[in-house]
Amino acid sequence: MTDRFETHSRADLPAGNGRRDTPIQMTDTPDDRRPTQRVEETPRPTVQPTDNATAEGTGVTGASDRSLADEGTLIEARDLSVYYGDDQALRDVSIEIPENRVTAIIGPSGCGKSTFLRCLNRMNDLIDDVTVEGELLFAGKNVYDDDVDPVVLRRHVGMVFQQPNPFPKSIYENVAYGLRVQGRTDDLDAKVEQALRRAALWDEVNDRLDESGLELSGGQQQRLCIARAIAVDPELLLMDEPASALDPIATAGIEDLIRDLSEEYTVVIVTHNMQQAARVSDYTAVFLTGGELVEFAPTATIFENPDDQRVDDYVSGKFG
Ligand SMILES: Nc1ncnc2c1ncn2[C@@H]1O[C@H](COP(=O)(O)OP(=O)(O)OP(=O)(O)O)[C@@H](O)[C@H]1O
């Protein structure tokens, strides 16, 4: 079986300047659980960031002061719709998500935020009676193409969940897990150390790597889960409410870490916490009830000068 994903290292990624032009080809392992594809109906225009201003000096604290003008695109959804049975959860979503930036997905409960996130690593495949329409390009390749193996895709898309979920194994083995599964055990100690350092956990655990990951505090467990996710060096890191189960101090630690990670990874984070979105993200996508993506723009624009009145109402707390 050819795993073309394996030939695509992070070093191959373009440095920026526009749309990625190196599509990743994936294995053609058939997948019985692949959801049905429906024929597309009326296409909608892709929602691109509406403003390439920097976030510097905008008053949105914590947002990046890097230029938002010159990044490439890692993810592109084209008229993406998702149904659970007959119920539509995402409605013709078109968006281009930049690489090596943090993109926050916000919106009221039930608007499809998690559904969108779960499309990116095809976790929706695990749910019965899901139908996906449209295209979802990851580095130029539609992840819903017949020849894409979701297992291979997931090696390139790390995910961190709301509740920290370390394995009942040692700290070391939690981080080493994905590397062992992939047979990448050369220099394992160095790779584990590097992942723990990137996750800002090394200094706290380096003298007790053999202890259970379950003995760490909540914030440490979540950083361990982040270390586990990044140990295999994914291109994309998905985070679904990663700090909502944590106390304010641990939350601040995770937020700092997310900012740091965006130097090396593309991060897409779902959060209910608008202040958190403002603090950690470069871009924000606002979904509203019915699974519609209403606006996608630099975070400072969304919070200070959105185009859409509904977004203005939402971020100013008038509903949701
Ligand atoms: N497994 C499922 N089966 C059926 N319907 C589902 C399933 N998961 C989500 N839905 C429905 O799809 C819609 C979008 O759900 P989703 O979880 O994506 O929203 P969300 O914006 O992440 O919500 P929240 O902020 O409350 O977590 C909702 O109406 C939800 O009830």
Automatic annotation (TrEMBL):
SMART domains (UniProt xref): AAA (SM00382)
Molecular function per GO: ATP binding
Claim: Transport is one of the keywords in the record: yes
Biased composition (Polar residues): 45-55
Domain of life: Archaea
Region (Disordered): 1-68
Compositionally biased residues, Basic and acidic residues: 1-11, 30-43
Keyword Transport part of the UniProt annotation: yes
Keywords: ATP-binding, Cell membrane, Membrane, Nucleotide-binding, Transport
Pfam families: ABC_tran (PF00005)
Family annotation (PROSITE patterns): ABC_TRANSPORTER_1 (PS00211), ABC_TRANSPORTER_2 (PS50893)
NCBIfam families assigned to the protein according to its UniProt record, in alphabetical order: 3a0107s01c2
Protein name: Phosphate ABC transporter ATP-binding protein PstB
Source organism of the structure: Salinirubrum litoreum
Gene it is expressed from: pstB
